[in-house]
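Exercise: predict the fold of this chain.
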Amino acid sequence: MVGIAHPICLRSIIDSLMVSIQDFKGLINKRFFNNFFPIPATSPLKRGMNVPDFQLPNVTNNSQVKLSDYFNQQPVILAFTRIFSEKLYCPLCYPHIIELNGAYEQFRSAGVEVLLITSTDHQQSLQVVQDLGLTMPFLCDPDCRVFRSYGVGQALGAPLPAQFVLDLQGRIKYRHLFSFFSPNADADKLLTAVG
């Protein structure tokens, strides 16, 4: 039996979509075509497994972030998000980005780093950081190499969202892969998963 979505949830999605559909500039590019055909979120990475290391530019503070630098230092939440261009956000991910940014100090107070990863290019990512007032590390992966290594899937021009909670050794404590019933794990669930 298929249920009907709650009206407040639908309103939030519609509002997010209206905010996100302002400008299609930057949408049609090589990344869009490379991620157009659907690949389901079937990550081979399971609880207890070590994750692939990576190094990506952090647009928020103009630095490089290497995931393994956090190992033996603090737990990390990898939040893969879906943004099509600097002015076109996924209506299911936009509220999640805002929620994570709003809860960033709470994560930091708990000793957890949150790395928000996008497939937008550097210039697009700079605009997103500015427009949304992001304070958390916002990493750009325009060739989607890290998205693919984590097996988060893709559809209609961009990789799918996913979240991975990592322990001090870089092992998965919790993972959330995209589905239409539950596109993203909320901030409370991620903080609880850190333990």
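Check your answer against the key: Residues 1-8, 16-21 have pLDDT under 50 and may be disordered.
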